[in-house]
Design goal:
The structure is a homodimer.
Chain A: H1 3-11, H2 18-29, H3 35-48, H4 52-63, E1 79-83, H5 91-101, E2 106-110, H6 120-125, H7 136-146, E3 148-152, H8 159-170, H9 177-190, E4 195-202, H10 211-227, E5 231-238, E6 246-247, H11 249-260, H12 266-282, H13 289-301, H14 304-315, H15 321-324, E7 334-339, E8 344-349, H16 351-361, E9 377-380, E10 387-388, E11 393-399, H17 405-415, E12 416-419, E13 429-434, E14 437-440
Parallel strand pairs in A: 1-4, 2-3, 4-5
Antiparallel strand pairs in A: 5-13, 6-9, 7-11, 8-10, 8-12, 9-11, 13-14
Helix pairs in contact in A: 1-3, 2-4, 4-9, 4-10, 5-12, 5-14, 9-10, 12-13, 16-17
């Protein structure tokens, strides 16, 4: 067996067995399979795909390339959520403390933003002092003590994925369902969870733009989760416009604080409640998703999500004074508004383009080692369906980079489409998906 | 423009323009495009192909990444041959001196073994002292003096291809018509030739296993050659079983010496004479291919191919005593025979598998920097169509690697298929192809 034979076999569309997949992945970690062989393999997988058995084997080998955390000593059903990524997707920051406050332990290992999408880790790190680099021992200690923990992928967790993820980004091999599944599920299964809720995004700002692809991805993720004995359910949610109003790390934290203090940002809270309801149900604290949702609402309204978030921030070293008084946070040097040139209704806010503009402003990364400006970002003033008058401010840009201000404002103006006819946003929660199939989701929030 | 965008564009099946191809290839030479990006690109080309315009642009950029040799001062029409590669394909070692002895200058820049196939360069280098690393000045001098020269690709010749060729070999991206065309034609066009004969292999041991693919490759190569102003014709020849009896570098040199001394190895000599006839015709020393063939036969029978080969070996530093007395060559530590378990006829000798077994024995490379054992290889005792008795030796394995002896022998036994019904080998020369089309070839040897 040699790496080239395995690449050729996959290239020809043949099914790989466990020995072959293991040889290739282990070889990659041990530098016996070169980067250039891995990238050729990844591209071959992009074209020839993997069947379900290959995908689970691939996931299993990635998972077992590192430590699989054992949280069995901690009481309760541990539940996490994973989102396939979007623009303005700050759900985890409200969801995790809300669900934890309902009595369901939430151990969460998150990723950084890459490409046009943001990452939970970058958002958390915008809180001064907040440590995301806990060791796995600390991770276990925090979840045991306060029922919630939010960290980044450590070197021990799925090292094969860590190495491969960086490679995929620069070799055009991101958009592949088996590769995405292996990457997501190997990390999530390593966390020590018992159950998982997935938020699979679809639309312009999602990695899987088409709904059919997103459903296929969701089905694969759910099947893999269940195969590994973790109850997994998913929701297909809209990512054609950014979620909520804020895009940019600290701006998103502030929006989350406001929501946990009772502000209603409708799309953001609808997604948060539905995912939360499912997590609470899977965590055994509610009989149905609907019951879970109403539990989540009560808890949040009672201020307990906020309390739990504050507890998390304190426990992980964050400076709580910025949470209680966000106004003291440093301000961007430049702030400009983008105004409407006509009267009408917002028909579209291109999430992909907003994500790219965010990168320009300093809120995201083009390359893995780019440095993020946590203050930078975009505050939308309107959302799809809203009516506008000429000269209304549609969005505000914040950045320290003077040189890109004008270009960013021009691009943002083009990304927000105003037309004369009234219009409604796309349905937000498109479907609920479990091992039995895809079901319409009748909004209940 | 960045490398990832270009990979994604090709991955999506879009046509690349000259600027994009140039950016990618030049970037690769200048280390701005990483190996792992190139291999992902190559795999994307494997799946999405290139059209004729992209292929000629690609060839042109590869060709002009280095020196294009000018041999116009040397009298005569310079003709070379290129084979797409096979197992036991040692034709060049007899063909080049034979054609040169007919008065047609043969400037040949050859490659190393790639995947399961051998390379002329490795075979020449198995001759103690033989130098294949002449500078281009020496190259010109040798061809001017003795009408033949056989070297390896120098750093100045198509450096883009040199770097890419090594990568393709270990990333499963060899079997792609545009990539093969670009690689072959950029090197051949750089040699300073006036005309070219192609031996395009088809069958299990060829890179293009299917006849349809092989014909498509031949047509592309011929179209590219003619587009660059070089008369190019090709033959489609069988590579379902190894050519001749020897597989392994020095073993093949010995078989060639024997043939140049008059031994008839039918399949090997038929291919050699037909290609030789075409070269002599293109070189203006015969009116037709048939006339060229008979000229070649006369020359070889007169011992003049052998003389020219000896002259070449001496001129390029080889120790002629090994040619005159091959018995003095070092022997492999282990030699075992593979025997027939039944009576019948040889129906198949799987050339691909024989090639892979050759690699195991040390006769080929798994990775670019693997070291070849020139003694190692396989000597077939029978060929397809031959009758065998139980216990007849079918083949002999030679290697220094004790640990793989048994596996190699078992694999080789399975690669040689014996059945009770009589059988004939596949037609050897399937077609003659030129810019006008594909024509049946009526054996005339």
């Amino acid at each position: 067996m040699n790496p080239t034979e395995i690449i050729r076999k996959k290239r020809s569309g043949d099914k790989l067995n466990r020995t072959e997949i293991e040889f290739f992945i282990q070889g990659y970690i041990n530098d016996k399979v070169a980067d250039y062989q891995m990238s050729a393999f990844l591209m071959a997988v992009y074209f020839q795909k993997m069947d379900f058995e290959e995908t689970t084997t691939f996931t299993d080998i990635m998972l077992n390339s590192g430590v699989v955390v054992d949280l069995s000593e901690i009481p309760g059903i541990k539940v996490d959520k994973h989102s396939t990524g979007g623009v303005g997707d700050k759900v985890s920051l409200i969801l995790a403390p809300m669900v934890a406050a309902c009595g369901v332990p939430v151990p969460m290992i998150s990723g950084r933003g890459l490409g046009h999408t943001g990452g939970t880790l970058d958002k958390l790190e915008s809180i001064p002092g907040f440590r995301t680099d806990l060791s796995l021992d600390e991770y276990k200690k925090v979840i045991a003590e306060i029922g919630i923990v939010m960290i980044g992928q450590t070197a021990e967790i799925a090292p094969a994925d860590k190495k491969m993820y960086a490679l995929r980004d620069v070799t055009g091999t991101v958009e592949s369902i088996p590769l995405i599944s292996g990457s997501i599920m190997s990390k999530k299964l390593a966390e020590g969870i018992d159950a998982l809720v997935l938020d699979v995004k679809t639309g312009r700002g999602a990695f899987m733009q088409s709904e059919a692809d997103a459903i296929e991805l969701a089905k694969t993720l759910i099947a893999v989760g269940n195969k590994f004995g973790k109850k997994t359910i998913g929701f297909l949610t809209d990512m054609s416009q950014p979620l909520g109003y804020a895009v940019g790390n600290w701006l998103e934290v502030v929006e989350c604080i406001e929501c946990m203090q009772g502000k209603n940002v409708p799309d953001l809270m609808e997604v948060t409640y539905v995912l939360g309801g499912a997590m609470v149900m899977l965590g055994g604290k509610a009989g149905t998703i609907e019951e879970g949702i109403s539990k989540c609402k009560d808890i949040l309204q009672a201020g307990k999500a906020m309390d739990k978030f504050n507890e998390l921030v304190r426990r992980q070293g964050g400076d709580i004074s910025f949470i209680t008084n966000p106004e003291k946070y440093p301000k961007s040097k430049y702030t400009i508004g983008v105004k409407s040139t006509s009267k009408g209704y917002i028909h579209n806010i291109d999430a992909l383009e907003v994500g790219f503009i965010g990168i320009m402003l300093g809120a995201g990364r083009m390359k893995v080692d780019d440095i993020i400006d946590p203050k930078a970002g975009i505050r939308l003033m309107k959302k799809v369906g809203d009516s506008v008058k000429a000269d209304d401010t549609l969005a505000i840009i914040q950045t320290d980079k003077k040189e890109i201000l004008e270009t960013a404002a021009n691009r943002l103006e083009k990304a927000i489409c105003v037309a004369t006819e009234p219009c409604a946003p796309s349905p937000l929660i498109r479907a609920m998906i479990n091992e039995k199939g895809v079901f319409p989701w009748h909004g209940c929030v």
